[in-house]
Amino acid sequence: MNPLYTVDEITHQLQDAGATFIITIPLFADKVKQSASAHGQIKTIYVVGEAEGCESLSTLLGDDGEDFPENVEINPKDDIACLPYSSGTTGHPKGVMLTHYNLIADASIVTHASFMWNKDDAVVLGLLPFFHSFGQVISMSCALHKGWKVVCVPKFEPESFLRVIQEHKVSHAAVVPSTVLFLAKSPLVEQFDLSSLKDITSGGSATQCTAVKNPEGTPSINRMAQTR
């Protein structure tokens, strides 16, 4: 869920999805609690850490699981695995129903040998938001599928962005066109060693042709797809 959402926007999404549990972080706990109260159907709010009025996620992870069925039968082709929401340009954000097979297909396609995201030891930059399908598929699902390391960056800040790539030897980065422009034109780039970067994938909108001259000859792939 977009952390920039207002209480009303969060409430709408909770109601539309029929949510009964929430996992968040302490920074957003107060806003989430207000939305949960307005929704009226949330049983528990879990936080990664500690927050007043919320249950720590560590409690859930430490549960012995006795209250859960040992096996849950699902139809992976038809049953919904996740429900990312659209940007809402024509009204309220709409839930995009992705099945288990949808996620498997996405990860399998992007990590196929015909793509550059087919390495066994990739280090992926987790800059794109995971609540968006671009970040979810490229940065998260593919990493889970291949067992890659993901270096999560909460927001784009020029120096810290470049430092993360240098220090963690990031090999693959999925970004938006404005970040490609930064890499192509900012003099700050020359102050950092980005030689580990093997692939830059851009999406969300078109990238200017003049920007596709990447540092150290790094290939850039601009991908476009339907809303999913």
Short description:
Pfam families: AMP-binding. The protein is an alpha/beta fold and about 230 residues long. It has seven helices and ten strands.
Describe the overall structure:
This is AMP-dependent synthetase/ligase domain-containing protein. One of its GO terms (molecular function) is CoA-ligase activity. It comes from Desmophyllum pertusum. By secondary structure, the chain is α/β, with parallel strands linked by helices. The chain contains seven helices and ten strands. The strands form three sheets. The chain has a five-stranded parallel sheet, with helices on both faces. Strand 6, helix 5 and strand 7 form a beta-alpha-beta unit.
Structural class by helix and strand composition: alpha/beta
Count the DSSP helices.
7
Helix/strand order, N-terminal first: HEHEEHEEHEHEHEHEE
The backbone outline, from C-alpha atoms, is: globular
Distance between the termini: 15 Å
Number of strands: 10
Give a topology summary.
Elements: H1 7-17, E1 21-24, H2 29-39, E2 44-47, E3 55-56, H3 57-61, E4 80-82, E5 98-99, H4 100-110, E6 123-126, H5 133-146, E7 149-152, H6 158-168, E8 172-175, H7 177-185, E9 199-202, E10 220-222
Parallel strand pairs: 1-2, 2-3, 6-7, 6-8, 8-9, 9-10
Antiparallel strand pairs: 4-5
Helix pairs in contact: 1-2, 4-5
Comma- or semicolon-separated keywords:
228 residues; alpha/beta; five-stranded parallel β-sheet; three-stranded parallel β-sheet; 10 strands; CoA-ligase activity; AMP-binding_CS; AMP-dependent synthetase/ligase domain-containing protein; AMP-dep_synth/lig_dom
